[in-house]
Fold arginase.
Amino acid sequence: MSTIGRRGIHYFQKLNSANVSAALLEKGQNRVIDASLTLIRERAKLKGELVRALGGAVASASLLGVPLGHNSSFLQGPAFAPPRIREAIWCDSTNSTTEEGKELNDPRVLTDVGDVPVQEIRDCGIDDYRLMNVISESVKLVMEEDPLRPLVLGGDHSISFPVIRAVSEKLGGPVDILHLDAHPDIYDAFEGNKYSHASSFARIMEGGYARRLLQVGIRSITAEGREQGKRFGVEQFEMRTFSKDRHFLENLKLGEGVKGVYVSIDLDSLDPAFAPGVSHIEPGGLSFRDILNILHNLQGDVVGGDVVELNPQRDTVDGMTAMVAAKLVRELTAKISK
Amino acid sequence: MSTIGRRGIHYFQKLNSANVSAALLEKGQNRVIDASLTLIRERAKLKGELVRALGGAVASASLLGVPLGHNSSFLQGPAFAPPRIREAIWCDSTNSTTEEGKELNDPRVLTDVGDVPVQEIRDCGIDDYRLMNVISESVKLVMEEDPLRPLVLGGDHSISFPVIRAVSEKLGGPVDILHLDAHPDIYDAFEGNKYSHASSFARIMEGGYARRLLQVGIRSITAEGREQGKRFGVEQFEMRTFSKDRHFLENLKLGEGVKGVYVSIDLDSLDPAFAPGVSHIEPGGLSFRDILNILHNLQGDVVGGDVVELNPQRDTVDGMTAMVAAKLVRELTAKISK
Amino acid sequence: MSTIGRRGIHYFQKLNSANVSAALLEKGQNRVIDASLTLIRERAKLKGELVRALGGAVASASLLGVPLGHNSSFLQGPAFAPPRIREAIWCDSTNSTTEEGKELNDPRVLTDVGDVPVQEIRDCGIDDYRLMNVISESVKLVMEEDPLRPLVLGGDHSISFPVIRAVSEKLGGPVDILHLDAHPDIYDAFEGNKYSHASSFARIMEGGYARRLLQVGIRSITAEGREQGKRFGVEQFEMRTFSKDRHFLENLKLGEGVKGVYVSIDLDSLDPAFAPGVSHIEPGGLSFRDILNILHNLQGDVVGGDVVELNPQRDTVDGMTAMVAAKLVRELTAKISK
Amino acid sequence: MSTIGRRGIHYFQKLNSANVSAALLEKGQNRVIDASLTLIRERAKLKGELVRALGGAVASASLLGVPLGHNSSFLQGPAFAPPRIREAIWCDSTNSTTEEGKELNDPRVLTDVGDVPVQEIRDCGIDDYRLMNVISESVKLVMEEDPLRPLVLGGDHSISFPVIRAVSEKLGGPVDILHLDAHPDIYDAFEGNKYSHASSFARIMEGGYARRLLQVGIRSITAEGREQGKRFGVEQFEMRTFSKDRHFLENLKLGEGVKGVYVSIDLDSLDPAFAPGVSHIEPGGLSFRDILNILHNLQGDVVGGDVVELNPQRDTVDGMTAMVAAKLVRELTAKISK
Amino acid sequence: MSTIGRRGIHYFQKLNSANVSAALLEKGQNRVIDASLTLIRERAKLKGELVRALGGAVASASLLGVPLGHNSSFLQGPAFAPPRIREAIWCDSTNSTTEEGKELNDPRVLTDVGDVPVQEIRDCGIDDYRLMNVISESVKLVMEEDPLRPLVLGGDHSISFPVIRAVSEKLGGPVDILHLDAHPDIYDAFEGNKYSHASSFARIMEGGYARRLLQVGIRSITAEGREQGKRFGVEQFEMRTFSKDRHFLENLKLGEGVKGVYVSIDLDSLDPAFAPGVSHIEPGGLSFRDILNILHNLQGDVVGGDVVELNPQRDTVDGMTAMVAAKLVRELTAKISK
Amino acid sequence: MSTIGRRGIHYFQKLNSANVSAALLEKGQNRVIDASLTLIRERAKLKGELVRALGGAVASASLLGVPLGHNSSFLQGPAFAPPRIREAIWCDSTNSTTEEGKELNDPRVLTDVGDVPVQEIRDCGIDDYRLMNVISESVKLVMEEDPLRPLVLGGDHSISFPVIRAVSEKLGGPVDILHLDAHPDIYDAFEGNKYSHASSFARIMEGGYARRLLQVGIRSITAEGREQGKRFGVEQFEMRTFSKDRHFLENLKLGEGVKGVYVSIDLDSLDPAFAPGVSHIEPGGLSFRDILNILHNLQGDVVGGDVVELNPQRDTVDGMTAMVAAKLVRELTAKISK
């Protein structure tokens, strides 16, 4: 349905075949990339200055939107997600207190540095290799501004690779990852795409960005998915055995001896009853409370996180899944900020 | 339902009342504004260079998204519109030829400089006065790149004021405006808001940016609306008499003796049967073909235009109104480019 | 889907067969009917006193809701319509001025006496014969309060019979009726039901309550419908010939020599593109503007009217058809009040 | 979206400022209130006589609808709920037996006294203080008719205050309350509104109408909510600890030593997966079976109850949440009647 | 979204590469094809016998469903259309009389021979060349049974090629075609597919099955579409000039000197306001009444017809577009039968 | 809403009363029945030959669609279900591996023999007695082709009677049945219909086709349902006690000493949160994972099964319930095939 993905690039391929010089193109593209990063830097800087001026925060969640949908294998609606999640976070139908009492209205708890201009970058003919670098750089610009920590709004799951790469590189070592998902996203490549949303965790494990990778909610996994899991030493918790694993998962202690914990939440880890607005409807998943029970009881220093794969084009008219995504962002914020 | 509007500002009011210095705030805000404009400039430059390199274009439509919804008096969904209109423009369900045979795939006909980062600017505590200036500056940056002409994707109708101001100032004189709308949008202020989407044409007429203003599709107008119309010499064509006015409107000749014609299309000029995805459902409007008949037969040099008030939160699940907005953008593109 | 219809009565039949005396039942039912009418009377009285106290009104539209859906042959959703139409009339998305400039906020133009408690009356085991009398009495109680004139919110179309009967009886003679509908509603009986929404105009013509009956928008009519039309001298304008009849219909002069004009608008006279929220989707109908053109140009003293057959259970999520119904009520109000 | 709330009153404020005497207004309003209560009385009387004539019932649930939505802080759709719940109770898609075998078709188990005419009362300019009294009086009129007990259909949650006040006053002492909700609704006032749906339980506790108040399903609570809870000795069971509290809650024994148990069910106590048609979507709630398990095992004399906050404007097209509300009403009926 | 298209074939390709003999496969496929045609034959025979036994019919419309969606270039939902159109034809919400008085309940006017088992044939690995032959043979089997004439329910528009081929071959010469569509469907091939729904009329013209081809409603046409039109002598009536062409089109006389008239209605000829449930939303189309005016006034012997491209997956929940398709089938039936 | 049910028969009753001989009718009907069965036979034969040629399969699931909806007491949408379930089984949004690792792409695991042409058979005036025989015969034709085992796609639940009858008769003795449902479907007759979807298990038990019948998920049951249960020795597991029964149900061992196990899954056994697209919304049901836990742990030789009561007309726009049905079919396939 969506053509966001295919468009950007072949538009510029046409230019290449015309009498437009490659040098002119590349120069212009670099100027656009530089300006994009400058804008992220300035917004992060302003927010960082404010949090520091207010004082007292050791760690502070800062939203960064990555409206990227073209690495999805099925639908590309997650490109529209970040503004919808933000709207839901501040929706008048609820208040600004998290379940355990953090006040989101306090900028020391939550700020926002806006979106990486993904669509514009692609429309300038910039390929995924460079785009992924822009995303990584953007995450690092946020982390530069102590005490800000990145809480990324997807986008499809392909964005977790550049984000976690940046977190690990910036912190100087691997992290432990708690990954909630219906799928392991660990194909070597999907339909030839190394940056596919079904391959991000293969990239992450190859890069050495994670020590432990715990995958929870898994219920759509192929032989390759299981083999790749073994190859990389992934701890895969399938839904088939969730009732047995539940006690273990509700008492996790992660991140010690490494640079901390990263939490990546794919909304399709939830049963579609709880999160219908996703591209890949896979019945038999977690309940919302299951996730909060795991999250609230998680021990460890959460250095970053993401909430991905909201597809607003499949959500209910009243945006129920956006509210679900927003509440996960809120509770992750409470976990990160201190 | 939406709280996009209220949020931005009072968040920073809170900061003001804390021990954060006003100077620090303003300096940071200025850096963010500068970086935002730099990014627009670089994207416009790249697109302009390409069109010029390809050669042969005298006038070329260039999309500029303005995702601003907070000046709406009812719903704020138009803030989500620009990416949805773009998706629909390139949707695989149709081809890239306009009704009269223009090829949209040709960059000399249509390019895109992306969105003004409206939400991020507001989230930095920047008020509407400065935001409106950023929008005007962005339009001028597009016009700087000959032969690009701005075709703006709203956003609510409040954006037409800064856009038309920029067009007129840049061209050095007034234009004629063809304005399709259910409402005259000419209140002096609406609920105290001078920048309301119901007041944009009052601002435009006061500023002297238009010689003639033709309003077509009008069917929700108060006594004040009629008085303001008279005061500013507006030519108001109400739906009540459309069957009589049709011949005149399908043979318009505008823009001679001034700097050209600007076309502003509010989607609620259409009957809600044709465009259900708008905030202000007002039965009894134009058919889609009525608008195309007016547009195709319009004689004049179209120097810019906008398509506003798409509210994706009220659209059908298959985005019918986004397709309607997209086709209006496509046909306007054909009118602008040469 | 709906069981509103069948329920009421057989519940009390069960009581009859138990050891509950018929006298006790009937006495209780009469007390409920009396109290229902007293409540309508008091509300009409209060509104009438106010309009008279304000002074200057010769005729003033007063809403009366009749939430009756059980005489529909297909779906019973119109029982839920009156509160939805009221909400749409006052919806913030539009203003309070009609197309020709009447101010609905002025109580001399529009008041509201609330709903006949149809569902409660039926739940007390009261049959349709007595219910129709309650509706007629309610209309007369409104008309008692000079200068109030009844503008009835349906409900299914069966309500037009008791309403028009009351109008004619109260005024002391027949009226002319402008009836917009996809169907003639003139079966002698439908599936044995004399009070069916498909038979109301047979009852009206038999009762001598109308001199002329003009039916506009007709496009679903059987042989019986045409024969009954001839039998009663009905002027049936079918959609097949609307383009030829349009001029005549846009220049109607009615009600002279009788007690005035009554306008009955079934929403399915509109094409379902304009009014999807109806029980009987019948493509090929009028546009909204077609109806307004007929209405605005109608000459005659409009003594009452109704807007019927809105089915909220089939409306779009944003209530587009409720908005359509509301605008028809608004424009009818302008026609009635003076 | 809805303007039900604001409208009623300021319409009459306008009258006050005109030359309409306050005495005339108040006299008319009092007549309307008296007639409204008379109508409730007569309906209750008829139903009471029937149940007594049939004999054998010690306690019998009787529905009373309170279509009030204007005290909601976000959306006002609950004003449309009572007729939708009734339709669902009798929907042909299910039978008339409750899970434990009660026959709802038996009038000794369930009768209906209809709705309090809330909208009409407000449209007569009557303020919330007097409206709340009308609601309380209506509940007492039901209780007057032995063995009827009130089972109230909301409406927003503000109605629980006048209902429980009436129950307690009529019985002559406090009750124990089982309150299922995502929110504690115990603000002292919300946005200045003492009658807000977010403040009803503050009013109830202040009035001394409850001995114990157990709140179950809580997951959106602010610091003030927790403080007010402590202040009034409320037993707050948060969802965070539901897996631990479950055993206790599935074995409740309440109401001994006081006048009985009142059960108030806010549909948003359910997770939005189970009840999407509510104004305040708050993920992480109870399952439908969780509620039934608590209810079926509750020991105590249930003297009244309510099911509130259904918002039909946010329900699925097939009315899933209305079916959920209806089943809760059915099972509560089984609990009350004996 | 749909994978109906790709699946069938490559499933059997896999078998080919396994140790399954090609002969075994082909023999089985032929048996399935023969049995499919036998079933169509027997159903047509039974219906033909009945109509002849009743006597008096010279020409009688007979429905044949072709649930084929895989030759669509965008969505494949039309594969689900035939049962939905049938349901709508007989829906209780309307009666069985056409606008001009034909009785559809009379089997001499309308019978039904059911569906070609398209999906099962494809699932047996049968390719499009043979499938198209099965469709042609099925049409001929209907025509064999005098006085039955085929009225085909699509499916996507690719089916018009095998249907019209069969009609022409069976009648022994070309027909005139009235083709209502937003697109000319006359590409030589679309994305390499000679059987694409965008190429059917190229196949028809190449085959010499039509003398005149009138295309009405065209508003999405490329340079190739216009060139192919000229090459084949097609009379293309574009929406741009419809107001001028209307008189001509409402007075058509076709089919004299050839074997009769065939009417092919693509639902996207209608504006999406009137027919939202189509795959290719193209604003600016015909109204439903426009089509009926053309059809009712068409002079000529209509020997067959089709209604195609209903996509139930994009229709409104109440199936408005299915009702539109059904009414077109009903009115076409009236045109065919005599 | 749907009229599929009533239509077929009375259409032919009309013929009977005309001058059409009963012999002619019956002969034609028999030819249609024979041809229908021949087509099923040929498709089953081809699929059987292929599976045998590939070798190695002992038991292999083969889909058979039965699009029958007219024996439903409420809505008839299940007649549209089989093609929607098939589409969902092969939807690109998921892969072809079951939770425990079976590959559905392997024809030895899953084939498809298409649909019984139920609608066409009924439209030929064939009554339910003969139709039920056609369904039974079709199932036997599948079982004829070793190693195929029938996995039936409903249709409403009335189809389980002819299917299980055929399985038992073909295998030569009773089976054990695991029946997941909100209702026991064991009325002697429902509204006089012996073939009602509410009576199928009464027919099955009377016929001696089952030794044990375990009903799981029950939560809508009348006194008659409980009595019939006792009469036939049915093991009814009600939702009220599911938390206690869970351990037993997750460790079932069935089918020993009889001909095997048959699994019949009515989608309304699931809570409507998990399966909204059903005709009978009955809150308080199983979660999707509850069913998989029972199914995955079931020990026994599964000789056949069905998934019934999907109503696509009540499903979400994205077909969530079709995905749920498809996953149940996939996991049942894994259970059957070996």
